[in-house]
């Protein structure tokens, strides 16, 4: 197997045309002809995760977040991102980024959350302009209502541990059955969650004023999750779907690893 073959599989599962207009996912570092036996998955391409991928003998690193969010004129090793590019190339480890294209994929970020939480899939929160079956976020439904506080505890138990923890805005004794989720920064879609008829909106990076206003205007409850923790859930699906697709297309086996490294930047809580 080589990098190009794996990229073809990845971009069939997570098409690049699902990405938001400002996003540039895909193969970022590496030669498509490099061989691949082991793939290492992490939410963030940091010095620690890159070193760990190399230590595990990976020839391809998949991250959810981009190495470069903005255009650059240099990949010099004197910059911290350039140093990561240099290290990856020196160790023949390619980097493929699946960002908002993975967010909008059918078995992407939103589906990963409702799958692990045992919710029934009701479709995307924000349908994609070209494919309404796909899109940002997801709506899920419980057959039997549960308490908001119990749901938040279940989320905390199913996410990787962080010092940030899980926060709730709402009555913990409120019964909920319909859930809107958008893993990652989601306060731009608060009104979409409200319009969906959800009882609670699960996302990350929620800010004071948008939540305060929405609580008063809509009555919607909120669960604020650590950004990297909720987005790590998608790798539970990816390590099933990618090897199965490789097997079906090429009759080959690959190894996929999920990092144990916590990249949440908030490491102390007082």
How is this fold's topology laid out?
Blueprint lengths: L2 H11 L12 E4 L8 E5 L4 H9 L4 E4 L16 H11 L3 E4 L2 H5 L4 H9 L2 E2 L4 E2 L7 E2 L1 E10 H11 L8 E3 L5 E11 L4 H6 L4 E5 L3 H11 L2 E5 L1 H5 L2 H17 L4 E4 L12
Parallel strand pairs: 2-3, 2-13, 3-4, 10-11, 11-12
Antiparallel strand pairs: 1-4, 5-8, 6-7, 8-10, 9-12
Helix pairs in contact: 1-10, 2-3, 5-10
Instruction: Measure the end-to-end span.
Output: 48 Å
CATH architecture of the largest domain: 3-Layer(aba) Sandwich
For this structure, the CATH topology of the largest domain is: Udp-n-acetylmuramoylalanyl-d-glutamate--2,6- Diaminopimelate Ligase, Chain: A, domain 1
What characteristic shape results from the CA principal axes?
globular
Q: How many extended strands?
A: 13
CATH class assignment of the largest domain = Alpha Beta
Low-confidence blocks of residues: none
- Largest sheet, strands/sense/barrel: 6 strands, mixed
Counted by DSSP, the helix tally is: 10
Beta-strand residue percentage: 15-25%
Helix content: 25-40%
Provide the domain count: 2
Class based on secondary structure composition and strand pairing: alpha/beta
Average of per-residue pLDDT values: 96
């Amino acid at each position: 197997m080589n990098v190009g073959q794996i990229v073809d599989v990845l971009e069939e599962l997570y098409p690049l045309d699902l990405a938001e207009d400002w996003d540039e996912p895909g193969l970022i570092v590496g030669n498509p002809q490099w061989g691949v036996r082991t793939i290492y998955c992490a939410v963030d391409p940091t010095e620690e995760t890159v070193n760990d991928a190399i230590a595990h003998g990976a020839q391809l690193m998949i991250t959810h977040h981009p190495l470069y969010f903005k255009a650059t004129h240099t990949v010099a090793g004197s910059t911290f991102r350039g140093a990561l590019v240099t290290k990856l190339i020196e160790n023949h480890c390619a980097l493929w980024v699946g960002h908002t294209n993975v967010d909008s994929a059918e078995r992407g970020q939103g589906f990963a959350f409702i799958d692990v939480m045992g919710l029934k899939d009701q479709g995307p929160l924000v349908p994609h302009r070209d494919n309404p079956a796909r899109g940002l976020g997801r709506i899920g439904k419980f057959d039997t209502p549960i308490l908001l506080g119990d749901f938040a505890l279940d989320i905390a138990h199913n996410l990787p541990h962080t010092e940030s923890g899980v926060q709730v805005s709402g009555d913990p004794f409120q019964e909920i059955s319909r859930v809107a989720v958008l893993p990652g920064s989601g306060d731009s879609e608060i009104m979409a969650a409200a319009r969906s008829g959800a009882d609670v909106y699960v996302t990350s990076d929620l800010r004071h004023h948008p939540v305060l206003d929405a609580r008063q205007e809509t009555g919607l409850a909120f669960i604020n999750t650590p950004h990297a923790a909720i987005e790590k859930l998608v790798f539970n699906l990816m390590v099933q779907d990618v090897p199965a697709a490789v097997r079906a297309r090429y009759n080959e086996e690959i190894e996929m690893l999920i990092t144990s490294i916590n990249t949440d930047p908030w490491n102390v809580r007082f």
